[in-house]
Structure formats: structure tokens, C-alpha cells
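Sanity check

After download, print the first record. It should look like this:
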Amino acid sequence: MDVVKEIIQNSAIGPLSYGYKSAVLILFGVIVGILLIMLALLLSHGSELTFHYGY
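Expected C-alpha cells:
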């Protein structure tokens, strides 16, 4: 946990208030969560998808 705090303090959001830091970290967590859900759906239903390449 100390490493995470040090990374946050040395990043661009380091001097911001606690509320902004929380908002940025929550937004990052939501984005990562959505990406993991999308990966799980792609792995479970990927064989049923059809891709069309072209313009």
C-alpha cells in the first residue's frame, strides 16, 4: 500500500485534494472493471461472433 501512495504522490494528481484523487482512482477502477468484463464476455462468446473486414 505504501508503494501505491508513493506513486500517487509523485504523479500528476499528487498535489490535488483528497476528493479529486478519489474521483480519479474511482474512474480508473471503473474503466479497468469495464475492460475486464468486456474481455470475459469476448472470451466466453467470442466463437459466436462474426467479423466483417472492409470499408
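If your output differs, re-run the checksum step. Summary of this record's structure: The CA atoms of residues 21 and 44 lie 35 Å apart.
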